[in-house]
Amino acid sequence: MDKQRLEKSHRHTTADRAPSALSQNPRPAKLQARTSGSPGGDPNTLLPTGALASPCFRRSPSCRIPSHIFESNTRAPQDSAHRDRQVHPATIVLRKSQSSQAALVPKEHKMFMEEAYNAAICFKMLRDLNSADSLRMKYIIKKIKNMAQGAPNLVLETIHDYFVDNMEISTRHKFRLFHVLEAVIGAIDSLEETWEKTFIELALENMTKSTDLEEVYQDAASNVLVAICRHSWLAVAQHLETEVLTGVFPHRSLLYVMGILTSNKQIFNNGEKACWEEQLAQMAIKSVQFLNTDVWSKELLWALSRPDRTHQEQPPEKAFLFLYFGLILQAEENSNTVRRHLLALLETSHQWPKQREGIALAVGLAAARHLDQVWAILEQFGRSTPIKWSLHSCSPKNSEDLRWKWASSTILLAYGQVAVRAKAHILPWVDNILSRMIYFFHYSSWDETLKESFLTAVLMLARAISRNEGAHSYEFSQTSELLESLMVLLDKEPPDSLCTLTRQQTIHIISSICKLRPPPDPEKKSRLLSTCLRSVLALPLLDVLEKHTCLYLEPPDIQALYNKTSEALDQMLQSFIIQNPTADELHLLLSHLYVWLASEKAHERQRAVHSCKTLLEFLNRNICLDPKEDFKRIGQLVGMLGILCQDPDKATQGSSLEGVGHLYQLLIRQRGMASQVEAQTPKQSSQPGADEASLWSSGDQKTTPPTPQEMVTPKDSISQLSSSQVIKEVMKHLTMAELTDFLWTAIDGLGSASPFRVQAAADMLLAAVQEHGATLETVANLGRAIHLQLCSVRIPQARENVLLAVTLLARNHTPELVAAFLDFSISLDSHAFQLWRALGAERSGSRLVLAILLAWLRERPLPAQATDSSPPPKEETCLRSLAAMNTLRQLQGTQEFKKAMQEAYPMLLLALLTQMHYVLELDLPRGPWPGQEAQEAAAPSPQGASLEALKSLLSTTGHWQDFAHLELQGAWDHFTAIHTYPQGVGLLARAMVQNRCVQIKAVASQLLPNLLSKEERERKVSMLILVEFLYSPALLEVLPEQTALVVLARSLRDSSPEIRVLSLEGMGNILFHPAKGILLRGQLPPFLNGFFQNSEPVVVRIMGTVSDVLHRLGAHGAGAQSLGIAVKTRSFFDDERDGIRAAAMALFGDLVEAMAGRELSSLRTQVHQSMVPLLLHLQDRCPDVVTQARFAFYRCTVLLRWRLQHTTFCTLAWERGLSARHFLWTRLMTRSQEEFSIHLAQALSYLHSRQHHMKTWAVLFIGYTICCHPRAVSRMVNSVDRNLLLCTFEDLKKAPEPGLREFATRQLSFIQEVAAKPH
Fold this sequence. Notes:
Blueprint: H1 2-9, E1 70-71, E2 93-94, H2 107-128, H3 134-150, H4 152-165, H5 171-187, H6 193-207, H7 215-244, H8 252-263, H9 270-287, H10 294-305, H11 316-331, H12 335-346, H13 353-367, H14 371-382, H15 385-392, H16 399-405, H17 407-422, H18 430-443, H19 448-466, H20 479-491, H21 502-514, H22 522-537, H23 542-547, H24 558-579, H25 583-597, H26 602-622, H27 634-644, H28 650-670, H29 690-696, H30 716-719, H31 723-731, H32 736-749, H33 755-772, H34 779-790, H35 796-822, H36 830-839, H37 843-857, H38 875-891, H39 895-903, H40 905-922, H41 942-956, H42 960-969, H43 981-994, H44 1000-1011, H45 1016-1029, H46 1035-1038, H47 1041-1051, H48 1057-1067, H49 1076-1089, H50 1096-1113, H51 1121-1130, H52 1138-1154, H53 1161-1176, H54 1183-1199, H55 1205-1214, H56 1218-1229, H57 1233-1245, H58 1252-1268, H59 1270-1276, H60 1279-1292, H61 1298-1316
Antiparallel strand pairs: 1-2
Helix pairs in contact: 2-4, 3-4, 3-5, 4-5, 5-7, 6-7, 7-8, 8-11, 9-11, 11-13, 12-13, 12-14, 13-14, 13-17, 14-17, 17-18, 17-19, 18-19, 18-20, 19-21, 20-21, 20-22, 21-24, 22-24, 22-25, 24-26, 25-26, 25-27, 26-28, 27-28, 27-31, 27-32, 27-33, 28-31, 31-33, 32-33, 32-34, 33-35, 34-35, 35-36, ...
């Protein structure tokens, strides 16, 4: 080899080099010696001695290389495995001399030396390819490419000569040389024609060779041809055409090159690409003849159906073959031939994705000219048995089943390709194609393959339609069904992962389809919006989405994927508003965003508010809305964005504030006020760049977003304001309806589970009421809504703001709010109670609220009778009257209404008494309130509530004495029945008179108007009270005697018999007949003698009559007969007959009450002597006796002016334990020594009682006395009493109660100790 090289080297001269004898291609006439600072090779590259005999040195036979340019022991960069290898002593390196001697060499000789140096380096690197590893090979290719950029012809000639002169190099070495040659041709700027021809022939020669590397070697040679195409594709194309049209089925390498040329967009420019496609079409026309050649067509079908090396990627030759086959079918004029070949192609396997895509491409290309035939073929194939089987088979059992499993996906793709290739003829076929696509989508087994095929096919169809100019004037009947299918597809997407472009593509398709006619109806569009928004906005956080891709070999960029999907969603919203630029359309879009703006998940709110902001910015920038058409429900949007301005997430805050700015500008422009603020309008911000998009379109910021202060809002006038001030500024431009929507949004926000939303909503509600509360409308409905949401407000500051807003509303809307609050006050919960207190928080407001409640209380319609022809009353009015009663009951103890209640006491008293009569008239069931839920049944019934309201009025306004009289008598039961109701009212009025109530004059002044009322119940109540008030001297200060007579006389003509009877009773009062007192006192002695009758009922009646006489005598009293009454009455306290004991104690109490203020000393003694019997009878076995004893005891304590009267009353009324006994005993036994002796003596006398419980109670009484006053007792008790006590305690030790037994044991021991001590 070295000899041959030397011989060849002598055939060349420096000036003109002749072509190689072994090469049939001429070489360039002259090498271009391009030198630079470095000739392209490493100066330390190793060069073997034999390299000097290489063709690189064939320059001049007389050439001699100076010895000074040779150096030894220099290394080139090598792999780490060779770095420690010693350089062979015979190895030399050729390098460019930098010595001063080199300057003496002639210039031509210097250039020769540089070229020789570079050629030697290139030669050496080409030789090293054979043994280089992958890293070293990359390094060599890089160095040769760099060298080629400086001296392309030198490198190309070296490579060519290496091929030519080394015919026996290995296949692997040639494979690598082809890689180098491809890289070099691709790196240089131009390729001379001689080299084109040389390397085209070299590539063609090796493309079809069969080697041990098989297709890899062929592809490497083919890639050289592809690289040449970048410089001169026509020459390559001519060679390819010649090879393809020989009549023999083309070798795969030829198809490989054509496939690369067709698919690689970087090879051709636009003009060249069109020429190449035209040449392909001409080649296809010329290849039509081969379809009828049996061998050629069989090889074609075999090549098309042959399994690929990898099923994920299709080799370029096969992809091109499908394209070329389609072009041939397109050029074929015989439709039968087209049908035959298409059917043969469709009957091949459909198992692999690229195979299905190739089949569809061929079918689509054929349809460009044979649309009818292709449609018929697809219909026939779609109805064939294998396809029908594949539609209903979910689990293939063998390879034959797999072959047909995804045939429906092929059909879908084929329909898509048909739509693309049909171009201008597509519109009449769209509905047919869509119907078949929808059919296969719905009836095929669902999997990712079907989904992707359907989506790809629809995308192709949508693009084909969009490119057709007549599409917008054409009506399609299947678009509605297609939209349904797309919604199904989105619904079937996994809700917790985002790994594909499915969502993005589907939303783009929906946007395109909705542009067609007919447009989707509002209901369909609403469902589309809901589905698309849910599919995108409800996705988990990006971190969570990324976790779902951790097992992927090549995980997708989730951030970028989400950004594109979100952008598609925003574009869909913008597309909708462009197609229908109306306020209704904007409202529809925003109403679907509201759901997500109110989401409890931060990332969903963040995404939704970004979409909302983007939509508003788009509207602001494009001004596509009609300025004559006003916004709808824009107040709701202001409210939603205002709440989100307080979101904890900074990105959400920023987007919300920016959105409010865009909305503000829209409002200004829409309301015709743009000229007023034109000077304040800033320049529109540019579209966000890629970095901004990744931050603001994801809804899941991974970096810190700009703060709201850093955001550029659309209006400079509000850009520097806080979020609350911005909202106030926007509110100024809202109409009343929009402001109402704003308030409703704020109230709805109160029910959120997010604390920030509740606080923000409360702040906005308060701000709106402060600014516009006086002019608001529908306040009643707002009040009801506030009540419904108040239960959800658990933040103290938020609740305080809401209640303050109610207080401010009450300044101008008290009647509406009271009426509204009554609707939920039938059974008053704690939240309603707080609202009522807020209504009365201001003094003037509490008075007005109370007046309105009283007015509603007087609205008392009765149910219509069967014979009544009047219209039935409204149930609402009846319920509000009851609710007003219940509300008054609850508010009586509140601080806000305390003063107002006291001021309105007379009116309240009469109103509540009348209301009680009304409730009894309604005859409501004794159960829960009307409309009350089962769980609220613990609340009092209407009857109970009316009674409780009266009790509460008396007890909370300082009239507890009147309350005590009724409580201790058990008089409240009189108010529970219509027939005993007058007695109850009379007892209350009588208690007021007996207690000298300070409100008698005020109440009396209210009686006169009520007596003229149209309501009988009001006149009846007033008359009942007036009859009792006639016994009060205070009445005459308001109502003189003659006036009172006139009033009573007028009532004699009342339509009610009851009122007439009461009038007669009043006219018979002793006030008008002073002489009547003498007659009544004269009847007392015979009555007193009647006490000793044997008949219990007679005695009880007589005692009752005496009580009545004492009452009728009024201020005149019984005089001296009082003592006799007292003595005789006391004698019956221990009567064995229960009725007589009770009547006697009642009479004694009435006597004590009648003598109050003018008692005699003798009567006081009787009172002292009655205290112990009354106290002991509190344990009487008869309940009536207990009641009368309790009331009489209380009256006695009043007469004796005991301290702690209220405590005494409470003890008597409600306490029953030992503490009550101890308190009463202490009050009784610590008065005076005289009283102590009387009380102890009376207690000792009861030790002889035949009633066991009385005896036991007396023993306990004495026991307390002994424990506290042992000496006083020992002095007063004689031996007989002591023995009696001992016997009694001995008996008490046998009592069934353990406590009594223990008490008796201790007392017995104590008495014995006391008795044993000397006095």
